[in-house]
Structures are given as C-alpha cells and as structure tokens.
User: Fold these one by one.
Assistant:
Number 1:
Amino acid sequence: MHPIIPGIHHVTAITANAQKNIDFYCGVLGLRLVKLTVNFDDPSSYHIYYGDELGRPGTIMTFFVWPGAVRGRVGPPQVTSIAFAIPPEALNYWFTRLADYKAEAVERFGSAAIHFLDPDGIRLEIISVSHLSGQPWAGGPVPTEQAIRGLHSVTISEEGYESTAQVLADVMGFHSAGNEGNRFRYRAGTGDDGAHIVDLLCVPDAPRGAMGAGNVHHIAYRTPDDPQQDTWRKKIVQAGLNVSPVMDRTYFHSIYYREPGGVLFEIATDNPGFAVDETPDKLGTKLMLPAQYEPLRAEIDQIIPKVRLPGGLTIPAAP
Ligand code: ZN
C-alpha cells in the first residue's frame, strides 16, 4: 500500500502571552479554543489548541506558551507564514476586522489575500478560496458566512529550496504546482481544497531565523491512522532522515523529523482527536492534563498563569 498525505494536520507556534493569544485567535479570528492543556515536556506552561468546532485536522493552530519569552527572529529555515481559508465575499469584512493588525492586500497565485500580524508578530494570511471544504465554527464572534474554514497553506522560508522540495516530492508525495518568482508551490497528494499547500520561499540572502516568541516551532502533516504512520516512518528512515519514535500526544500520535533545510516536520494521526477527553460541546472549557500530570493538578494550578476563556470562565478554576 502506498500511503498519501492528505494535507496539513496542524501548525505549532510560540507565544509569550496566553491571554493575548486567546483573545486574538478566539476573539478576533473567531477560531474555537478546542483544548487547553500543558506542554507535555513542561507542565508549568500551557499548550493551547484552536480549530473548527471539533478541531478537525487541517483546521488546527497550536501554541506553546513561553511566558515573557524574548521575541525570536523570523527567517530561514522556518515556517514564516500561515494562511487561513475564507470565502471570496468575506475579504472586505476581514480587511475591516484586521485593520489594527497591519492588514495589507497581497495576491498568491491569483487569489486575493490579506497579510497581517498576530500579537506576537507571527505572519498570518487570509486567502479567499472559491471551493471551500472546511466547516466554520458557529460559536465565535465572526458570522459563519465570513468565518475561517481552516488552514489554507504555509510558507516555509529556506536559504535554498531544492533539498526541501525533494523531500516533499520524492518522499512525502507532494506535487510541484509552479512558482511565482522565488515562491515554489507544492500540493499534497489528494489535491482537494483544504490545507494541502506548502509554499517554499527561496531567500538565500535573508538573515537566519532564531527561535523565540513569534516563531513557528513546527508543522505537522496528516496521516489517517497508526499503520499508515508506521509506513511513513519506514519511508523517512529509508530516505536517510532521523525520525523520532511514535509519541503519544493524547489527541494524536506523532513522529518528528527535521527536513534537510532545517525545519521540524511532524506526521500526526487524524485519531483520536480532541473529543477523547471532553465531550464536543465542552471542548476547551477546562485545563486538561495528561494522566501522568493529573496527580500534580493542585501544584500546576498554583503556578500556571491565570487566563480568561472566551465564555468568561477563568483557569485555573476556583477551588
Ligand atoms: Zn505538533
């Protein structure tokens, strides 16, 4: 069996301030907070997940919270921009809504788009797409006709794009979809309209990036299940790349490898998803801890920064 990567699973970035991050991604972009948990490697800090109403793969943006972290430098080799999909008639609505976030009109392969910055300086785009596949989150402040339908694409900046392109095309099954100047577009195997585009931006003269707040940490691609993930793992080993063992991330299972240009890639399973430990109607309303940290909940509540959630609840919850 030859597995296919259907597209992007999630993108994970770093914020210095959990409250500003929640206020922006829920309050301005209108995404749903689908999970509030801790960094599995550092339970004193949050890991926040946003998405559509279920946090379906292809709609997920996640953040490690490094409180007070110094701002990093955006540059190669990093994911330097993340694009969300909206309906074409929603473009003017978003121009007005994003006026305070340095909104600028851009065009990407013939599609009208808005480039803007999140509160940590992360470069985001909203791109109008005529054949939308995702579901809008109806419980947020943005009317559903205008709402974000999920991720559209990412831009990866590299000093030279060829070795990354080779891994995307020869190992991961992406297809070249042309270029606009130094922007080289690749599409995932199935080629539908949701979250399946990776643009490689070749910037040989740009200063190298440095990881900190305001940077993307890694990008994850989808695989439907554990057996296909195992096939991918073998394929990546055969390609001569170092790949991690399978890690249980509670909401998906993950393998990680660094592509030859230097960006951290992950392949994550679609299952089990965010409803594994909360019912769909209650997603993101409590601080969820993985089993190994549940005995430490009282201590974690003492040290983790207080945040106010979109519905007005506060975390940690009052005892
Ligand atoms: Zn990840």
Number 2:
Amino acid sequence: MKILVPVKRVVDYNVKVRVKPDGSAVDIANVKMSMNPFDEIAVEEAVRLREAGVATEVIAVSCGVTQCQETLRTAMAIGADRAILVESTEELQPLAVAKILKALVDKEQPQLIILGKQAIDDDSNQTGQMLAALAGLPQATFASKVTVADGRVSVAREIDGGSETLSLTLPAVITTDLRLNEPRYVTLPNIMKAKKKPMETIKPADLGVDVTPRLKTLKVAEPPQRSAGVKVPDVKTLVEKLKTEAKVL
Ligand code: AMP
C-alpha cells in the first residue's frame, strides 16, 4: 500500500517572524525555512508503517516554489521513497492545496494520506479536512496513535479532556498531532541517499487544478507590545491593585 505525505515549506519554528513594513504579509526574505513540524511527524509515521511492512511506498508531496525541493529532500532523508513537487509561484491557499492533493490521490491511489494537523505559518488547520471532503474519504484528525490492520486504520485522536479512538475504512485521511511520534534525527548518509531518490516536478495545470486564491489578506500586524510591569511593596497593595486596577478580584 502507498502512503502520500504532503509536506509544507514554512518559516522555521525557531525564527521570530517579522511583518513587512507595508503590513501586507510576513517577511520571508532571508529567513530560514524548514519542513512544517507536524509534517515531519507525518513523514516519520509513514516511514515507520513502511518499516513495519504495512506500507510498501511513501510518497512525499509539496506544493509551492522551487525551493520546496529542499523540504522534499528532507522528507526523503527521513525515509520517503520518492517525491512530487507541484511547482507554483502563486500563493497557494488551503483549498487550492486540497484540490491539488485530491488530483494526486486520484492519480497515485494511496491507501493513506497523512498530513500535519496544521501548518505553523497560516495555522489554518483546513487542508486535511478539505481533502477528505473533496475526495469523499473518511478522516481522523489530531492523531496520537495510528494502527493499520485488516483493511482498516484505527486512530486515537486528541480531544478536549481525553482521547477518542476511531476505526476507518481505507483509503483514509489522517492528520498528525504532536504526540504521535518523535521524528528521527536525519543523518548525513541518509541525506546523501536522499539526493539519489526520484523527484518529479509538475504544475497545478498538469493536474487540471485552478489555484487562484479565494481569500484576500487585508492586513497582517504584529501582536501589540506588552507594557512594562510594576513592582508592588507588599501583598496588601497587590490585592488592592487586583481589585481596583485589574478588576479581577
Ligand atoms: P493548513 O491547513 O494550511 O494548516 O495545513 C495542514 C497540512 O496540510 C500541513 O501540515 C501539510 O501536511 C498540508 N499542506 C498545507 N499546505 C501545503 C503545501 N503547500 N504543500 C504540501 N502540503 C501542504
């Protein structure tokens, strides 16, 4: 069985993002970019399923600019077998990505599609759900445990105050939560091996997908600066201030 893993190139989670002076977007010029952390977990899970003999092939796919090739090479260094770059310089919103992925699902016929629960740049948490709807497939989001057996996949999901276990027929869409696994460290020999693995490049139009944005960003702003705190001499003053100024007591 094949597993398709969509991986997004995003601003590295250690980078403090800056907004462009005109407030139109986040400035990504000269900023370190990496694979979305939830997608690393998705690749790790898919590779573990292949190593366990459950899957036969793991295909990583990324939609975006040419540099997404680096993200795909990382996915292959973790252990994906091959990669597809759906190249586009346009802004790709979740619906456009979901349409591209739907076309690839039709073409590749994977039994599982494992996505991240959200991309840390747009925090949309939409693509997996939209893909499941477009492809008419069952979905289990926020997965913390995945078990494939007897033509079904059992997924433990993180929900408020606990965990819920779903059993889905295959093919199915899964999105990963943080506790699903801890991705392996990418070693130099595996980075070298990944350079030789196949990578196909196609355009959204080759899949018959129109990626025209549906949403317009009106303004992007930094969070307001926190104002400086004050020191109080004793508990009595603190309680007084909490009552009169903060009005929380
Ligand atoms: P989002 O709905 O934007 O929060 O993204 C959720 C997940 O969809 C990500 O963790 C990725 O697995 C996948 N995804 C979103 N955008 C892309 C993209 N441009 N290329 C590949 N996968 C993507």
Number 3:
Amino acid sequence: MRREGTICLGIESTAHTFGVGIVSSNGEILANENDIYRPRSGGIHPREAAQHHASVAHHVLRRAISRAGVNLGEVDVIAFSYGPGLGPCLRTGATIARALALKLRRPLVAVNHGVAHIVIGKLTTGFKDPVVLYVAGGNTLVTTLHEKRYRLLGETLDIAAGNCLDVFGIKAGIGPMPAPEEYAKLGKVFYPLPLHVKGMDVSFSGLLTSAEKLLEAGKAVPDIALSLTETIYAMLTEVLERALALTQKKEVLLVGGLARSRRLQQMITEMVKIHGAEFKPIPDQFLGDNGAMIAWNGLKMFLSGHETSIERSFVKPRLRLDETEVTWD
Ligand code: FE2
C-alpha cells in the first residue's frame, strides 16, 4: 500500500553514529535505525569512524527500509547532514545520499545537523518557539530562534560539558557517560568545585582539572563524580535560566546526547517552574545523533522549496548553527 504524504529518507554521519531515518509529512517517524562506531581505545578516530560508516551503511539502510514498510521507490526526498562534523564521516554520508538521489532520481537536501537536533525536538514536544540548551560530547550552547536564525546566546569557551564528563570517566577508570552519572548516585561527599559562568558562556576545563586533582589525591570516585556532575548541571541550568529571563520565552528544550541525563532534566524541571515556563524531555532515541532528525528537517526544508544540487552538495565540517537561515519553521 502506498503511504500518504511526502516521504523523506535522512542520513546522519557527522561523528560516531551512522543513522538512517524515514519520516512522512504527516509527522510520522517510520524508521530510525543506526549503528554506532565505538573506538577500541581513546577518542574517536575520524577515518576509522568513516570506514565504520561505509561498512555498515547498506545494513542500516536495509533495516530502515524494512522497518518503515516502504520500498526505496516510494521515497520522495533524500536528506543528509552536511555539517558540522568530522570531514571523513560527513563525506561518507554525503556520498551515499548523492548516490541514492541520482539512482532514484529524487531531490537532495543538505541539512544543518545542529538545527536538526532542535527541529526534531520541536516535533516530539510540540513546542513552537523554545529556548534551547544543546549539550553533547562536542557541543555546549544556548540558542533560540530570532529573525530566522538560531542565534548563539552563550556557549562553552573551551571543552563541551559532555566531553568534560567523558574524559573524567575515562581517567577515573569507570568509562564515559553515562558512567559518571551512575557513580554520582553512590556519592556521599560533595566537594565544592569552582563554577565558571560568564554571562551565558561557560568553561569546563578548569573544572576537569579540579576533578583530576581530587582523583590524584585518592578521593572516592563516586564522591568526585557527584561533585562534578552536580556542578556542571548547575552551570548549565544557570545559563539556561539567564537565557529564559532575557528572552522571556515560555518553552525550554534540552537537546543533544547529554540531554539524556535524568539529573539535568530534573534540575531544569525545577528551574522552569520559577519562570512559569514549560520543559518537556525529548524521547531518548531522538536525543543522540540520529537519522530521523535529518529526515524530518530535510522534509520540512523540501516542502518549503529547498533543494541542494549535486554540484553544491559538498560538506561543511565547521558549519555553525547560525549560518543556516531557517525559513521553514
Ligand atoms: Fe549531534
């Protein structure tokens, strides 16, 4: 049976995740399949991650098609994330997207990955004009839509919040997130750590050094994990509160991989009450990088007249959130 509406297939490949999502213009997410590259040791290696994406792409694509109950011929639009991200990973996704668009003779749409995180959040929460805290392994920023662009109200001046927690967890021997948050639940002692908040900007590298010093001094890992997570989440809640007070908006979205943190969600729930605003968590499967967010954002762009020619479909590893003019939302 032919599905109603316009169907878009989206490809996500900016970093660890190779994802394929399929969505329909009635707002239905028909499939959201992914395969995540896990480095054997240390951080992400861009070329290894790209090789991973190339080797799993056909499996993920097949799974998505079968989960969605469509055949490839029924797909009307192909979307892909063209930045920001790791060059080799982005190019792998873009190559697959171009090949599909050419083979199926369908239009191609290049999507800003950061904007897509927000746009899928708006779909799943029903929010219209939120203030957004975007927190992940590589991003920490506060933004809101103003005159057709997601303006940066504040950001980290050094490392991302997720990166700070991941590095701490690895150094403590418990592994990256969510391990630090799990260990924090067992913590009994809170060590006051320095808060680095300037306006709506934050900084985490000094905090990481302080936590490392506690590790070297032989303090219990759960206690340090408790102190570090509580301090980071308090800083993030603080800048979000400042953004809310400035913009006077009434909706709050928390997006990106670190947005899965139940403790951070809890702190934000408490904070918004003071401002008469509303916060709704996004379902976990749409918080980390995923293909559905690219498909949904690509579909909205396509329906408002956007299309990317093959010749202009190059990737932009350093693409910024506010580089994209949002004319479809
Ligand atoms: Fe992301």
